[in-house]
Amino acid sequence: MNKHTHPLFVTLGLGWMLATSIATSAADSAATEKATPPAPPIPAIRALLLQPASLTLEDGRDTRRVLVIGERTDGARIDLTGDARWTAESGGVSVDAEGRVTGLKLGQTTVTVEAGGKKIELPVNVVGTQLKSVGFVRDIEPILSKTGCNAGPCHGSAKGKNGFKLSLRGYDPDYDYQALINDLGGRRLNRVRVDESLMLQKPLSDVPHEGRQALRPGSLNHQLLKQWITEGARFEPLSARATNLTVLPAIVEIDLPGRRQQFIILAHYSDGTTRDVTDDAVLSSNNEEIALVKNRTLTALRRGEMAVLVRYEGLYSAREVAVMGDRSGFSFAAMPEYNGIDGPVNAKLKRMRILPSDLCTDAEFLRRVSLDLTGQPPDVERLRAFLADPTESRKKREAVIDTLLGSKAYGEFWANKFADLLQCNSENLGKKGVWMFRGWIEGQLAANRPYDQFVRDLVLAQGSTFENPAGNYLRALRDPSKMTEDISQTFLGVRFNCNKCHDHPFERWTQNQYYELGAFFGQVAFKQGTLGRDLLIRGNETYASEQVSEDIVYRNYNGGDVRHPKNAAVMKPKVPYGHLRAQTADEDPRKAFADWLTSSDNPYFARSTVNRFWSYFFGRGIIDPVDDIRAGNPPSNPELLAWLEKEFVAGGYDLRQLMRTLCNSRTYQLSIIPNRWNEDDSVNFSHALPRRLSAEQLLDAVSIATGHRPSFKDMPAGARSVTAPDGMVGGGDFLALFGRPKRQSACECERAGNVTLAHTLNLVNGPTLGDCVTASGNDIARLVKAEPDDRKVIEHVYMACLSRPPTSKEIDAIQLGSGAERLAGTQDLAWALLNSPSFLFNR
Amino acid sequence: MISIPGLYGATCDGFSRREFLRIGGAGIAGLSLADILKLQAQQAPTAGPSAGQPKNGWGRAKSVIILYLQGGPSHIDIWDPKPDAPSNIRGDFKTIRTKVPGIQLSEVMPRLAQQMDKATLIRSMSYTPVGLFNHTAAIYQIMTGYTPDRVSPSGQLEPPAPNDFPHLGSQIARLRPPEVPMLPFVMLPRPLQESNVIGKGGTAGFLGAAFDPYYFYQDPAKEINLADLTLRSEVSRDRLGRRSRLLKSVNDAMPAMEKAVEKYALDAYYQKAFDLVSSGRARDAFDLTKETAALRDSYGRHTFGQGCLLARRLVEAGTRVIQMNWPAVANGDPTVDAWDTHAANFGPLRNLHCPKLDSGLSTLLEDLDQRGLLKETLVVALGEFGRSPRLGVSTSGNTNSPDGRDHWPYCYTAFMAGAGVSRGALYGRSDATGSSPAELPVHPTQIVATIYHALGIDPHTMVMNHLNQPRELVQAEAVTGLFS
C-alpha cells in the first residue's frame, strides 16, 4: 500500500556523503490520477492539410515530422497526426509509425498520409544521405539534456554529482566539454576502446550508475555518443548552437476536451540550417487543469486557455492553446468600441466565444473610477450631482475621469502606490526620509512627470537626499544585489532573483547576467551628510536611534567591484539583452544603464508598465503576475498589450493619459454581473472582477461614509490613510491587518487582498469600524438629528455607504426605530451596509 | 446533491476507505459553505474516536499541537547527538543522559531530558527533494502532504494560490469540526515564510477560504490585543444579533453581488465571527493573564514559550489544530533567531534557539500531562529538514561558514508525544553520522498521515478539489508503530 518510494540510499566510495536518487514522489502518482476525458469521435473531414506541406532532408540523420490537420466541414481544424497512417511511396525515404521521415536515397519522392478517411501526399526532397560528423554542441549536449544528465538533481547540481559536474541544463557547453574530455584524467572517454568509455558504460549501466540506466543500448543516442568518441570527440564551434525555436502549429484552437494535439519543434542555427528537435525538446503544460502534455502530445481536459512551454538547449518558447469546449447556441455580439482597447478585447472574446457583460450603471461607474483613480468613493454630494447631471452617460463619465485625474486625491493615492513599489519605509530611510521621499513622489505624479524621466531620476540620483529626495530609492535598496533584483522587477517586470545563485531554471537569464547587471551599481555609495545633524546633537530621545540627517548618494570611484560568487571574477557592467550604448571613459555606468532601461527599444520597460497599470484597474494583468514576465507566462491578449505599449511610448510615457485611456474604455466600464457565456471567464476581461478594497481604501471609505476619521500616529488630524508616508507605522492594526505592505519588497504580492476570519472579526467587532459608526457628532448622528423623515435618512446612509440610492423595496425593509433607538437603528444600518460585500469590494 | 456518507462504517479494517466527500462542487449545488458547515456539524457526532475501539493509536487524539520549527533545525545538535563521530560532524555540543536509559540528547536540551519519558523521537526522518531544494517546497510538503511542483507548473516560488493543496489543519477543521463554538484551527504567531514567499502551504487551498486557519499573528509574550474578540460596550449581545439579521437582509437584496464574491466565503466567515464574539470562548482562551506567573515563567517569557502556553489553552477551549510556527523567517538570520544555520551554527543554537525550545516544549509536555490532556493531545515538533552532518559543506548550493550546516533532508528527527504515542521511546535509528536512516525510515508525508490517523481520519480519505476531482488526504501510511 505504500505509494511513495523511499529515497534509495547508496553509500559511496567517496565517503559518507549521501547522494540523492530520482525518487518517485507522491505527487507523481497524483498526476497520473487526473482523469483524462475520452477522446471525442473524429468529425467528418472535408480535406487534409500538412504542416509543413513538404520536407527537405539534408543528411542521413535528418529526421523530420509533419502535422496532419483535418479540416472539418464547417472549416474548423483538428489535429489528426496521432491517427494518421504513413506509407513511403518508394525506397527513397523511410517513415515510421509515428510519422518520422528519414532520407535513404537522393531525389524527390512522396509519402502518402491517410487520416479521417482522407488522403494527402507529402512531397519529400532528399538532398543528402551521408552521416555528418558528430559535434559536441549540436549533437551531444542535447543528449545530456534529454536524458537528464545535466538536470538539477543529477550532474547539473551546483556541486555536480559524485565528482562529475555539468552545467545546469547545458547552459555552458564549453564547461561541459572540458568536464567530459579532461576531468578524471580524461578517463571518461576511451578513444581506442570506445565501448569501454566511462561515458558509455555509466549511462548504459554497464558499470554501476546511481542514476540508473539513462541510455538504451543501440538507441540513436547511444550511436551518436559512440560515433562522437570514435571521430575524436570534437567540440566544433559555438555557432553550431541553436539560436531560436519555431513551434508548430502557430495557432492552436482545440474544439473539445479529450482531443489531442501534437507539436513540432524546429531549431534554427546561425548557419541557416534547421533541425527537427521535437524528440529532444522538453514540452510541458503551464496549466494542468486545462491540458496535460506528455510525450509531445497535448490532451485537452476542459475549456480554457493555457500554454505549452518548450525548452531546448537553453532556448525557451511557448505556444498558447485555446480549448473551446461545447459552445453550441453561442452567438457573439461585440460591445461598442469606445477606444483602442475595446477592439482587441472584442476580437479575443469573439475568438474564445465569450459574450461581454453589459455596461455598469452610472452610480457603479462613479464609485469604481473614484476608488481606482483617487482611492476613495464619492461622497453623497458628488454622487447626487453626478446622477442628476443630464449629460449623456458616456460624456459625463469622460468628464468625471478628467476631474478625478486632476484632483489632489489622485496624487495622494498614486504616491502611496509608488511609495509601496519604491520601498518607502522608515527602517530604510528614517522618519524624515520617508516624508521627503513620499513628498517628492507625489510632486512628480501631480506634475505628471513622464514616467521614463521619473524612473531615470530614481536610478541616476545623486547628492543629498534632502536636496534630491529621489536618492532615497537607491538608499532604500542599499546594495547592488537588491538594486539588480528590485530595479528589474519594478521597472521591467522581470524576476532576476532566481539567477543570483544559479541560472534561471525557467528562463534564459544566467547567473553571469545577474552580476553583470549588478556591476552597473557597484560604485553607488552612501555617506552621512551634515545637513540635519544638529537634530542629533540635541539628543532628542525620539531621534536618538534614528538617522534624521541627510544621506549623500555618491559615486565611489575606487570601490564596489561586483564579483561572481563562483570564481570571484570582477564583473563588467553588461545588460542581459538589447544594446548598450558606448560609454565614455569616465562616465558613471549608471547613465548608460538608465538609457538602456528607459529606451523605447527596451521591450520590457513600456510593456511591463502598461501591464502593471492595467492590473490596477482590472484586477489582473494581461500578463499575470505582472512582475514575472517570461516566455512561460504569456499575455492573455498580446494585441491588446501591444496597442497599449505603442500608445504609451508614442504619448511620451504619460501615466495620466494611460489611466485616462484605461478608464474611458468600454471594457473598464463593464458590469461585474456575468452572463451565461462569460461566467467562467476570468482572464479575458469580459466582465469586471470584484476586488476587495485595499487597506487604505477601506479605511478612507469608512471615514467618508461615517464622517469620522480615525487619527494616525505622527499624522495631522483629518489626514487620509494614503498620505501616511511610512510602511512601518500609521493606521495601526487595521491597515496592517487588511494587508498594507511594510514596503520591504519590490513584489506586488507584498500587498494582501484576501478575506479571512481575522478580517471579519475585526469588521464585526473591532474598534475601527465600531468607533466610526458610533462616534458622537459623526455624520450619522447629525443626520438623525436634522432629518425627521426616516426614508430620507435611509436613502442618505445607502448613498454614503454604498454610493447608490436604495430601491424602494430596500427602504421599506428597514425599521430605524423611534426616540432614542432611532440613532442606534441608523448606526446599525450603516454598520450592516459597511459589512456588506457591496461596500467591501470595488465592483 | 450533497452526500456525506457515514465516515467510518465498519469494514474489515475497521473503517471505510476512499470516502468521497464533495466540497468543490458544493457551491454549484446551491449550498453555501455555511450550510455545509452546518451539515458537517450534524454529521460529526457519528464519527470520531468513540466510534470504535482505538487500536494502533487510531482516533486517540482530540487535538494536535504542531510546533513547527521552520528553517530546519540541526538534528545532530539537538535530538540525535553523535558523540563518537569525528569532530567535523559531532560539532561543539556534549551529550547528556535523559530520564530514559538509552536515550541521549544534546546538552542544550537539559529540561527536555527530564521529560523524555513522555515522548518518542523519530530519528529516521528522511526524504529526497523532488525539484526545488528550498524551504518553501519542503514546508509545503510537510504541511499538505504533496510536493508543490504539481500545483505551480512554472516551478517558481509562488505565493499561496487557490488551487494549492490544503494544509492538514484545514482538512481536519473540515472533517472534524470542534464540538463547541471555537476556532477550529489556529496558526500563530507569524506566518510560514521564506524570503518574500509568505504563507505557502499554510492555507486551505482548494477547500476554499472558509477553512483557512485563524491567523493569530501577534506576539503572545507581549500584551495580546483581544479587542476584536471582546464584545464592545455599546453592543449588547441582542444588538449584535440584530445587526447580524440586518446584514443578512441587506445582503439578500443584492444576490448578484453575493454571487460575484462567492469564492471569498464571506457568509461562513461572518457566521463564525458572530459565534466567536458572542460566546466569548476564544477571548478567554487567548487571555494568558489568567495563568500564574510561575507557570508563565516556566514556559519561558518569549514568543515561543508563551505560544506553547497559548497552544495548551486553545486545546482546553476546544481548538482541533494549533500550529505554532517558529517565530523567525525560515531562511532568516541565524544570529537573530532562525534555524537556518548556514552560518554560525553553535553559538546561536546554544544561546538563542535551544533555551527557548527547551523551556517551551518541556513545560508544555509537563503541563499537558499534569492536566490529563496529553493522552488526548498529539504534540509534534519538527522542521522541514535537518542539517548536514558534516560542517561547512554546501548541499543546497548555499554558502556555509566553516561551522555552519546546510540543508539535510536525507536524515533528521521528529519529536512526537501524546495521544498514545509511546512514552520514552525511540522510533527508527540514524547511521553513525546521522546521514541516513539505519532502520525504519519515515517520510514526512507519513507524519501527515499519522496525524490524520491519530485524529481518527483515514489518511486515504478522498476529498474533492476545486475542480471536483478526487484527491487523497495524503498518499502515505500512518506510522502505527509509534503508538503503544
List keywords for this structure.
heterodimer, A: 843 residues, alpha+beta, Immunoglobulin-like, four-stranded mixed beta sheet, globular, B: 484 residues, alpha/beta, Alkaline Phosphatase, subunit A, three-stranded mixed beta sheet, disordered N terminus
Task: Provide a descriptive summary of the structure in words.
Chain A is α+β, with helices and mostly antiparallel strands and 843 residues long. Among the domains of chain A are: 45-126, Immunoglobulin-like (Sandwich); 143-233, no CATH class; 240-323, Immunoglobulin-like, CATH 2.60.40.1080; 693-842, no CATH class. Chain A is 35% helix and 14% strand. Chain A contains 30 helices and 25 strands. The radius of gyration of chain A is 32 Å and the shape is globular. Chain A starts with 25 loop residues before the first helix and ends with a strand. By secondary structure, chain B is of the alpha/beta class. Chain B has a domain at 60-222 and 299-459: Alkaline Phosphatase, subunit A. Chain B is built from 14 helices and 19 strands. Chain B has helices at 33-43, 75-78, 87-90, 110-113, 135-144, 168-175, 237-252, 255-260, 266-279, 281-286, 293-299, 303-317, 346-370, 444-454; strands at 20-21, 63-68, 95-97, 104-106, 119-125, 185-188, 193-194, 197-198, 214-215, 321-325, 377-382, 386-387, 407-408, 412-417, 425-427, 429-430, 437-439, 462-464, 470-472. In chain B, a hairpin with a 2-residue loop joins β7 (193-194) and β8 (197-198). Chain B is globular and about 75 Å long. Residues 1-53 and 151-155 of chain B have low confidence and may be disordered. The chains are: A alpha+beta (843), B alpha/beta (484).
